[in-house]
């Protein structure tokens, strides 16, 4: 429940709209109850054959309640659904924003199926609870209280009977439905998430699983999740059945009880005959309200469960040690009152690593003791066997990971020296330091938007220049898909989720080049590029690495992690990482001369000409 | 969309027992409702008009108590078993949907659309999970109500008629107005439910794409700004939903008012006749209580129909997928690949929106036991050529020929794909990680592999070193998207998989993509091992060391008909040499 409150607070349902929803809902239900009650009175009174004029008020009341019920119900549904949907959108947006700024490990720890469940089904469930969980309770309390008061005014005993029944209905029924259902709902949620994961795993890699002959086994896994789901649903139905039965029983008892005290009272002459129908009909109408409560209660339980999964994501950022947004911008303190955010270029930006260790938080550092001076315009290459933490090091150099030891600092003209990257405002830093990860994502949108992700305000001309520099000049000029051309073509990564009809699927090489174009378009003075040559044939790969290392603007600093050695002659310095330390460093020529493993790897690369068939 | 889709009813056969049970409970509940109304009316009339005392009506009160108690039990039972029908049908439909998706792949598969009814994996997944779950409302509420309407509405009408024929006639005349209105309004909202589901799916894909790109956005520092995209997608969805709801609720409002007016018409008649003394109070009260019940099932059908629209729309989409013809498959069993020569015979694959085919007229042979490298600049069709060879897609022109030693040659299209795939192990660019342990993943191609075999294979590929660093080692769990494994580690896992497989033909797509020059040795060792075992290897290769390790190279950039790749600027690969 605590989690639910946290999440609901995030959804910020508009208080007036929520209240309006609750009161229109209560009024609608009240109208229905009043309709039956007044009708009962009217008919009994009519049977006493009074002058028709005596019935006029009641007749008008019946009409008003009849029409009012429908109209009020309609308004209530629209208001409550709107409140709920707005809340869901806000929740999704907030979740995404939190994940965007949270610790890397949080985002990486969530599987795609999980994320889909959190941002999809869970968010919907949390919207649902406003309509189906919270409002029905408020409505039931208001109308229950009003009905009890009404009967009390007619006959206090009847009021007491109804009060007792309503109390049981308002408390015992939902508690039974809720407590019993809780454990089962958890089981269902797990089975659903498991199923979602299994279905995604099957469909995402269908060709591979087909060739491997494992689709049958994956289908069996899905069938197992389905079994679990069916069992969970069945278990969840059991306490729900008890709650529904109790709800019906308790309100039936109220009808019977009110009728009995009413009969006695009429016989004793305590009340007039016309009220007897009212005493029986009001509990009858109120039964509908109480019978809706088990569902409301289950909705609350489900929402609480969804909230339990969602709330930790909302809280990330609050107490994570390394969340850049959590540290207030120290611009004024460190940067002499200048907001880096507004600065496009930092003249003389100089990144410095001092005895730097790089590693994921909570794990052993992958690389230790690195000293590196990235003066403006320097071109550095980092090579070494895979799995040695080169990518982790690159992230640390860019300030995306906190140093596992030592310091990662920046100096800049007019700003100051020795500022820890951890203290620099994230967005300012990212604008200065652009990192292209080896698994960087191409979005299922236009070429233009894919580049603008890194360069919000860039003109088409600038984007075309960036594409040209990444070797995509001719490609973009010829690109067309359906009626779209050039920058307007929607592209997609064949492995990514965002592809539909009219999408131009990119091959591995084109994808890398587009990512490089994105880096160039960003205009950042420091480029960190991880494996630009992956998935490419040797000469294209070398061209790309060379393109990064030989970028024409003299002020631009570049660090490339690569497995291609041939183009590294262009680098000012090459660092060989092996065994968690810098095993060797120097220029390309120095390493060929003085570091045998480098020389042999380079030699292997040089026998490039493929054998002809 | 029809309120009753016969295809869905056919599916519902799986759950007929429960549909019948639910309907039976509904009939019993309503019968008790009628008895309850009559008893209530009798007791009130007797006491209020005839001045009877409690002792006089005691019997009726006891009966009323029994009726109410039984109703409570039935209500519980309804809740207990009502959901089972939906569970069974949704499950069956999901299974058929996924099975259809798996059967769509094959040598006869047309290059486009990418998948059933133009759906990609994420959309299919959404349909197969949340989309179908929406059927619950249709099957547990709408369908039983529909059956109740057919049986109960006339039954209650008969009771009213029997009590008071004038009221009965009034009800009979107003009753047809409701289905008429329902049909009118249903037609209007059906279109919107369709759109709403589409929008839901678009949102799903869109948000999924943004989430997949989250690490990238974070690295660039603009992830926060993209939250706006999530909001605008969500707002679009909200507007679409509210539009559907406005119509759906408006129709509910119209129905409600229609029913209220009808009941009022009955009530006014009763009231006037009561005042004139031509009707007794018992009949008046009974009719007043029963009149709304005539309309109730119809109204419920209306309400639940709108609630089940999403489910119906999802079912419609599922049937659209299921009705896509599955490509015909060959029936010949595949020859023993250890003694069969494979050939690309003038294979071209035309991609949508790309002027030239890639590959374009590829002709080449692969002999058993040979290691062949496919080379060429990116975008020249290496991956497509592999897909054709694997029998996963149909070439636009040309075919894969199979020439078993001492037997006449035939085309891959005639071969039963199962027997073909049984002899192939394939490592694609993005190898799959199935939810399960590392061990389950590494033995994906041969679950019977022993621990010793696994250890040996992992040693060759260097995956051993990776496993050692993972807590729980071989029993640690990995999930969708490869939690805890880097791309390079995942690649090594896939290589280990290949080594454990007993397939004759090994197909590798860019096997060293994540390995650097230093650890290329591991892949070379793998190739050497495969060569020793006499396996045939077709690999998409870029690295000279790998190309050098191959017996032969098929250079796609040098295909004679003159390659014009999708990126002419990338044709640097042509300097890599032209094949004979």
Describe this entry's structure for a reader.
The complex is a heterodimer of chains A (613) and B (580). Chain A is of the alpha/beta class. Chain A has helices spanning 2-11, 15-47, 56-101, 104-108, 112-154, 156-204, 206-212, 215-267, 274-291, 293-315, 331-334, 390-397, 426-432, 447-452, 460-469, 473-478, 508-522, 538-549, 588-594, 596-606; strands spanning 350-358, 367-374, 379-383, 405-412, 416-420, 433-436, 480-481, 484-485, 491-492, 504-505, 526-530, 557-561, 573-578, 581-586. Chain A has 20 helices and 14 strands. In chain A, helix 2 runs antiparallel to helix 3 (56-101). The model of chain A is unreliable at 317-344 and 607-613 (pLDDT under 50). By secondary structure, chain B is α/β, with parallel strands linked by helices. Chain B is built from 20 helices and eleven strands. Chain B has helices spanning 6-12, 16-48, 54-81, 83-104, 121-133, 135-163, 165-174, 177-212, 214-220, 223-276, 281-307, 309-323, 382-390, 417-421, 438-442, 451-461, 463-469, 487-500, 520-532, 544-549, and strands at 340-348, 362-366, 371-375, 397-404, 410-411, 424-427, 436-437, 477-478, 505-509, 536-540, 552-555. In chain B, the strands form three sheets. Chain B has a five-stranded parallel sheet with strand order 6-9-10-3-11, with helices on both faces. In chain B, strands 2-1-4-5 form a four-stranded antiparallel sheet, covered by helices on one side. A two-stranded antiparallel sheet of chain B has the order 7-8. The longest helix of chain B has 54 residues, at 223-276. Classes of the chains: A alpha/beta (613), B alpha/beta (580). The interface between A and B is large, with 190 and 179 residues.
Give me a quick take on this structure.
The complex is a heterodimer of chains A (613) and B (580). With 613 residues, chain A is an alpha/beta fold.
